[in-house]
Amino acid sequence: MMDNVTHTHEGPDPHAPRPDHDDTLTHHKRLEIAVRELLIEKGILTADEIREAVERMDARGPHLGAKLVAKAWVDPAFKARLVENGSAAAEEAGVQMDQPTRLIVVENTPQVHNLVVCTLCSCYPRMVLGIPPDWYKSRAYRSRAVHEPRAVLAEFGTRLSDDVTVRVHDSTADMRYLVLPMRPAGTDDFDEAKLAALVTRDSMIGVTTL
Amino acid sequence: MTPRFAVGAPVNVRRGNPPGHIRTPYYIRGKSGTVERICGEFRNPEELAYGRSGEPKQVLYRVRFNQKDIWPGYKGPAKDTIDVELYEHWLEPVR
User: Fold this and answer.
1) Model confidence over A141-172: pLDDT tens digits?
2) Cα A69 to the chain's mean position, in Å?
3) pLDDT in tens, A11-20
4) pLDDT digits (tens, 9 = 90+) for B13-45
5) Which of A111, B9, B36, B75 could bond to B64 as cystine, CB 3.0-4.6 Å?
6) How many Å lie between the alpha carbon of A197 and the closest alpha carbon of chain B?
7) All domains of chain B, ordered by start, with CATH?
8) C-beta atoms of B86 and A174 within 8 A
């Protein structure tokens, strides 16, 4: 242990700067730069259009899914439309479906708990949740979520009794999935904005409840 | 394109193992389930992945399987399920 009095910078520097990892021009970085520059040079896209597209993607996040969940909690007719046709109901609520994939909303009930995974890669409902967490893309989650979902849920602190059916959804193709969690007790007097603030990303993937 | 299978129909997943960009997970090949819903028609990703048109479009289904039928050692209640999206050419009727 070093205390402040004896702390000197003789010997190995305890505060030596760590090497940067942002200076390697990998194959894919090089490819991205080449394609981007060619698109601009050939007048197919402008630098501003590319920047705007990146900003649009970055602006998506769990707040969009949370808005849909909260609206579904306060408006049963909207909830019915959301479960019937996720993409159309999301558009109706002002959430842009800017991808060719379609949104399916699966509802948790006291009898059924839903869990979303993509075993083949990392398909994720980016239009309503933004960029996936790293664990969602890990091989461990992708394989275990399908063959031992209850053990995975327990590791997230979600212990379900055997009375509850666990439904796993493997996003293997053109559908994307959003879990509609159950509304927490004691929130009867909450308005939509206050409810939306309760809704976490993980609860909409289905690894946790609220 | 008229879907070959109706919602609720029992189906088998083909056991094929072709090379290429296949969206049918290995673990579900050869298994039996029930059509949960018909998702619509989509361009075939097995063709799209190689720069082809993906036409004709394929009907995409969501098929529901019982976990106990998929994993021999599944630890959990018999009613637990797994839903997988599968293109029509991967499905066969149960005889």
Assistant:
1) 999 999 999 999 999 999 999 999 999 999 99
2) 14
3) 667 777 777 7
4) 999 899 989 999 999 999 999 999 999 999 999
5) B36
6) 30
7) 10-93 (2.30.30.50)
8) no
